[in-house]
Amino acid sequence: MTSAVVVGSGPNGLAAAVRLAEAGVVVRVFEAEPTIGGGTRSTTTPAPDGAGTLVVDECSAFHPMGIASPYLASLGLERYGLRWRWPEVQVAHPLDCGRAAAVWRDPAQTAAALGPDGQAWDATVGAVARSFDSLVEDILRPVQHIPRHPLLLARFGALAALPATALAKVWRGEAARGLFAGVAAHAFADLRLPFTSSVGLVLTSAAQAVGWPVAEGGSQAITHALAARLRELGGTIETGVRIRRAEDAGAPDLLLLCVAPTAAATILAGRLPAAVARSYGRYRYGPAAFKVDYVVEGDVPWTAEEARRAGTVHVGGTIEEIAEAEAETVRGRMPARPFVLVGQQYLADPGRSAGDLHPIWAYAHVPNGYPGDATEAVTAQIERFAPGFRDCIRSVSARSVAATEAHNANYVGGDISAGANSGLQLVFRPRVAADPYATGIPGVFLCSAATPPGGGVHGMAGFLSAERALASLST
């Protein structure tokens, strides 16, 4: 029988393993860490004063692309315990004036709340949301493919190619512009550069089309469901096994690497074609995430009502402030007021809390490899829009950029996007090639978030890499 080894148990590694096992391949997954999941892990921690336990997501928290993923949807992961839960407000963006712009799953409610900008919002974001199911079939694939919906993709592409700051000019008010900039900032890129509207359009439209749900019980539930499906198909997972060289994986017919390109170059050293080795060695990484987990008593005292009901709150102020902060991080400088994402997962999934003690998940965008402590900068940004926040804090736990990389080796320099989203690399990851998953070595493929369609808990990079690996068996 055909055998395969998958290195790495993040969502893409597990998705690749499941797809191979579905095809009858004997699959083994090797994970270097003691627990599986990569960026899709959660922990249960004691609440302060021993008042029960709290569930804390280690990295990924909200999953619009997880629920939109065609492959994950095909697996029926609900059979293995996965349950999606939605907050009332999908994402909120507070402003200094005490107001907030927000996205609801109801497009009409979102447009109405944006007042004079509602019609223009509906004509851009709303139009993408209405065709989101069809659009996903094309955008969750490599750029170099025959589109299933060419006209739809072309219309989307015309807007997605714009800098986020340029597309935002379609709205007149500070609220709508800030809301879009906050979502676009998920790209960890200079929002004044071309194509930075793409992430903003995809994620805002997803918020209206499918929402930004959390996994009940923590993001680890996604990992557990994928692992359960793999084991049901006969696949095995071994933790605490670090593959440093290809020989460490044995001699399988197929080897799929859910690792960063630079790590792949090390594992495959001496075997890679020279051009591929150079490309992997030149792969660029983007800004980092500095994570802070708070335990608060009561809810965060946001000034804006919408933020009190939102699963995700983007903290950064105006579009001008966000664009400047993001440009600073790209240039390797720590902004005085970094862009901060705040997660209030417990609003959708109350079981994560212990009585009136709630876990608050947050991270700031900081330069790649940033050696400093951004805890105070994160706290100050939240306090700016939620006066009295400091008084609610019962405990604080920070994870530095170095600790983020140590926790997940794919996050080089703390880059949780698995690669810089700029220049040619934004379109062609991990290198310019007809087959982005192929390494140039027969039977060996890359399947991490450094390959199309990039970051996010959707498993599509793993699925598409596995499809390519299966096709290679017949050539």
TrEMBL record:
Cross-referenced InterPro entries: FAD/NAD-bd_sf (IPR036188)
Database matches in Pfam families: NAD_binding_8
Gene3D superfamilies reported in the protein's UniProt record: FAD/NAD(P)-binding domain
PANTHER family reported in the protein's UniProt record: DEHYDROGENASE-RELATED, PHYTOENE DEHYDROGENASE
Protein's name in the database: FAD-dependent oxidoreductase
